Prior knowledge:
Layout: E1 3-9, H1 13-24, H2 26-33, E2 36-43, E3 57-59, H3 62-67, E4 73-76, H4 82-93, E5 97-100, H5 103-120, E6 124-125, H6 136-143, E7 149-155, H7 158-170, H8 174-183, H9 192-195, H10 198-212, E8 222-223, H11 231-239, E9 242-253, E10 256-267, E11 279-286, E12 290-297, H12 301-319, H13 334-339, E13 349-359, H14 364-374, E14 379-385, E15 393-400, E16 403-404, H15 405-417, E17 421-430
Parallel strand pairs: 1-2, 1-4, 2-3, 4-5, 5-6, 8-10, 10-17
Antiparallel strand pairs: 7-9, 7-11, 9-10, 11-12, 13-15, 13-16, 13-17, 14-15
Amino acid sequence: MRSVNIGICGLGTVGAGVYKVLDRNSTHINSRANCDLVISQIGARRDNPNCDTADTAVTRDIFGVAKNPEIDIVVELIGGTDTAFELVMLAIENGKHVVTANKALIAKHGMEIFAAAESRGVMVAYEAAVAGGIPIIKALREGLAANRVNWLAGIINGTTNFILSEMDSKGREFADVLVEAQEKGYAEADPTFDVEGIDAAHKLVIMASLAFGMPLSLDGIFTDGITKLEPQDVVYARELGYAVKHLGIARQTEQGVELRVHPTLVPESCMISGVNDVSNAVMVNADAVGTTLYYGPGAGSEPTASSVIADIVDVARSINADASGWVPALGCNADMLQQQKIMAIEDIDTSFYIRFAALDKSGVLSTITKVMADAGISIEAIIQREQPVGEDYVNVIILTNVTREKLLDAAVEGIEQLDTVRGDVTFIRVEHLDQ
Ligand code: HSE
């Protein structure tokens, strides 16, 4: 069998996982790749005490790996967007195929990278960039190739899901769970990327580009994280039969594409509501197949390595066959790339959970429901709970029917202006994911 030489750049959590799994399962992986996969060189700015790289040459000069004439595939696992971009472009310039797990890099610079790869005739693969060990990129690009995708919705950040699950099931504090997620290697180097929804936005953009033939760009995505979420809302949601999940949602509508990341109430009857801990899950609704669900570990050393190595195998097989057509195709022509319009969050229709503290006296509830009616919003459920929020105030929780977000904004403003309501109105979008 011929050999395919690999250069791994970055020996952190994922790099170590790739080294270990390639070493442990080499016979099996080589037979799938139909060649001998050889790690010729590792570029890492520091050693990893959790990874014994045995006789493999390790250099501190990662750019040297991109220029090494012996190497066929450069595996970029250093993260970040500046040095990683420079490294990937240099590798392409030097005729290397590239495998990367870097979602921020693909979301931000994907178009430029793919254009360079196409003109140089090399492949760029990024399965591990979205949902860790779940082969969702292959599912969207190949498995569902026959379909027009209507919508997709996913739990695509393991750290956020881990935090929400622990807060929900064990009543733990946000900060305490975040530290555990960092220790376990789930969280990004800057964990605000996880908890503010930025990491999920990167992954959503990548999936939407494949599902809807859109350019890779972060412009226009509505992004909200979980830092403002209060434990009491998780409890009220449960009372109403919902779980609170942090979702990335992309939906093709006649007006444009919805692209949004935010905490969402999901009915307990929906499978995705039972996806807990660091697990990820993506539901895809498409015209021919209907709704499919992809579930698995969304972060961690070996799950992510599993996806990186799947790409290495794919690329290696193609090197020995015909590499043309391997630059990621977004499933559209150049005109379509420009035509897709992203909807403003105000124009999106969904249901809402809202909560506020109202004075506990007669007539208050009817004033509030009048504000809702005047805004054209229909109420699906309402609960009033006595809580220690103040002597005379009670918590009121309302579930609405589907409404346009701008109408909800008007109602929220109206409610906040009432003398009988104290403080801000909390609202969370609700998705039933049933059609
Ligand atoms: N920080 C990411 C997460 C790692 O928690 O999902 C995988 O992309």
